[in-house]
Amino acid sequence: MGEFLKRLAAPLVVVFLVLLTIVSMVGDRRARETGGRDLPWWQASLLEITAPIERLVSAPFVATRDFYEGYVDLIGVRAENRRLERRIAEIEAENLQFREALVASGHLGRVASMRDEVEIPMLPAEVVGLDVAPWFRSVLVDRGTQHGVEPGQPVITHEGVVGVVTATSGHAAKTMLLLDRQSAVDALVQRSRARGVVRGVGRDRLEFEFVVRGADVVEGDEVVTSGLGGVYPKGLRLGRVSQLRDAGGRLTRIAVIEPAVDLGQLEQVFVMLRRGPQMDLLYQPNLPLEDLDGPAPVGAPPPESPAEGESGEGGE
Amino acid sequence: MKSVAALFVVGVLALVVQGALARTIPPPFCPDLAWLVVVGIGLRWPHFVSGVVLAVVLGYGMDLLSGSLMGQHALLRLVSFLAAALAARQLDLSGGVPVGIFVLVMTVVYGMAMVTSLSFFVDANRPGFDVVGASLAHALVNVLATGPMIGIVERVQARFSDEEVGRRGAMPLGFDSGRGGLL
């Protein structure tokens, strides 16, 4: 009997472990359907330990890369500087015209009154780790539940949408990028308001699937979040249509989208701690100086400038 | 057991180094060091139960640092361990070339299984040619890293194991642990 049980031990262990992993996967899937989860204590503890270690170990690699890229970036910096100076001058002139027009039409007061709606607490966070598996696209950021981060909160940069928080521990949060195969976002074309779904396909491009009938989508169109789906607020920039193709003769077509954010070079991101009702103001073309200055300084929510009544461009 | 603890530490270190490499090397070209440790354990480790438990624990560690469903890597690492253990018993994996071929094939199968299982559990695209291409690129990088990683597993085993080593008498060692490279 003892010998029999001993021989049975290995298969039993394997069966138990297989069942355990399957139960874990089903549980995780359910948790994600309900907007993500706080990790159980043992996973959270491991993540708490791993995040700083990973940051430490990757520091030399990142420093080497930054040094090289910094050197490469220096090439042509003078020409770039002149171009940016010209652009600043143009934008300042545009801003002045907008302001005068707004004052003249009485819209400035209304734009200022929208401040409360637009003001959304943003938490700056640093990317400390990238996905270790090539089949998934996620990042680890250095802010967690202790800082108010919760699963289901959108993560953005000044350029557009990055992804959504899927799991949190005290001081770290796992964020699924738009590029991940599991990512799907309800979206619309900014120009024609054609609606569809933007999906990640595991590569560096996104796919925008839309119904052909009545849809007006052309290359170069800007695609933004629709606000439906319950995760992302309306009007956040997702990317630009770079190619159109058939989706196998069905009623739908697919537009290949170039993501607005360079998701391979993420360093600093912002977690939106609360979603606002109206975000169209934040990601319109001709944004003021953030466009040129890069991400807003740490601690300052970057998209507040429209609410200052400085510009108010494209509120409609 | 000291040797089990040592292999666990090696697996975790492999995961951390892999995470650091992932920040500079694009996804398919970053070797899956932690998975190679699991394969090394499957090929060289004589204790089945502790090996299978190690594989699953390291798989959960991978799940934690990846966007996969919790348990997905754990399950596939368990399968990888079983395949490696079976191959070590049934096949003549003498020399680096057969082990390299084994790792190449297993990496491609692993990638396809990962994407297929994902499409089974969530509404994701089924694997296409792009997955095969990425898997092949990933497999080639994994093959290059196989020698050193299995060499490390062999060294740890030789250093810490106070029990029977090389119980799989029929399984010849494929790597020269002294040089840590393909023979």
Describe the structure in your own words.
The complex is a heterodimer of chains A (316) and B (183). By secondary structure, chain A is of the alpha+beta class. Chain A has a domain at 184-259: Beta Barrel (Thrombin, subunit H). Chain A has helices at 2-33, 41-74, 77-105, 107-113, 115-118, 290-293, and strands at 37-38, 122-130, 138-141, 154-157, 160-168, 173-177, 184-189, 195-200, 206-211, 222-225, 237-246, 252-259, 268-272. In chain A, the strands form two sheets. A six-stranded antiparallel β-barrel of chain A has the order 2-3-6-5-4-13. Chain A has a six-stranded antiparallel β-barrel with strand order 7-8-9-12-11-10. Chain A is globular, with a radius of gyration of 23 Å. The model of chain A is unreliable at 276-316 (pLDDT under 50). Chain B has six helices and two strands, in the order ααααααββ. In chain B, helix 2 (33-44) runs antiparallel to helix 3 and helix 3 packs antiparallel against helix 4 (72-90). Chain B has a single domain (2-163), classed as Arp2/3 complex 21 kDa subunit ARPC3 (Orthogonal Bundle), CATH 1.10.1760.20. In chain B, a hairpin with a 4-residue loop joins strand 1 (175-176) and strand 2.
